[in-house]
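We treat protein structure as text, and this decision shapes the records that our systems exchange. This encoding replaces a full spatial description with a residue-level series of whole-number codes. Below, we set out a record of this kind in full and without editing:
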Amino acid sequence: MHQKRMSMPTSWKVPKKTNKWITATSPGPHSKDSSLPLVVILRDLLKIVDTSKEATRILQEKQVLVDGVARKNLKFPVGIFDVVAIPANNQYYRMLQDTKGRLYLNEIDENRAKWKICRINGKTTVKGGKTQLNLHDGSNILASEDYKTKDTVKLSLPDKKILARFEYKIGNTVMITGGRHSGMVGKVTEIETIRSSKNNVVKVSGKNDIETIENYVFVIGEDKPEIKVGEQA
């Protein structure tokens, strides 16, 4: 299925009036609204190819890695904090979100491309009584029971071994990944637990002091961001 450019998600930072159609994402680790198809990244953002046919060729040659894995699907969804690498060109990027909620590629070095951060969205108990962490990018890893939902883990790529853990708690550094404060980076000053079906409220101090719901808060470090961050207009 293709997507009309005029009705594409607002998170796609792509011109709307150049063509009528644009490639849609295929089902995968991220939703349509929170990811970009790989072909759009190569053609419209990085501009290293001019057509889908050229993109197909370099993907078939395994020249493009997403989180350390060669991807051949033009429609593969690349979402926030995913790492896109083109080693032959010495190009490495991490997908981030700007202050308008649009996805963009933040250039990083080769060493930073060897790991990514993931939020723990849930935990399940699997065969043998082991604990499985369900991560925001759709992947699952085995870990100890000590890890909590809303914590963030730093994972090596592509094997996804835990290198570090950043707790969801007051004082740690977070990025807002939804709502009208998208892209803002600051420190958690208060977590208000709501005793109802409503979302918990988190207060964050940065350039401005704001309140947002817990689901939009993504821990990215302790005293300072673990990842390289930067705003794009």
Remarks:
- The chain has a mean pLDDT of 88.
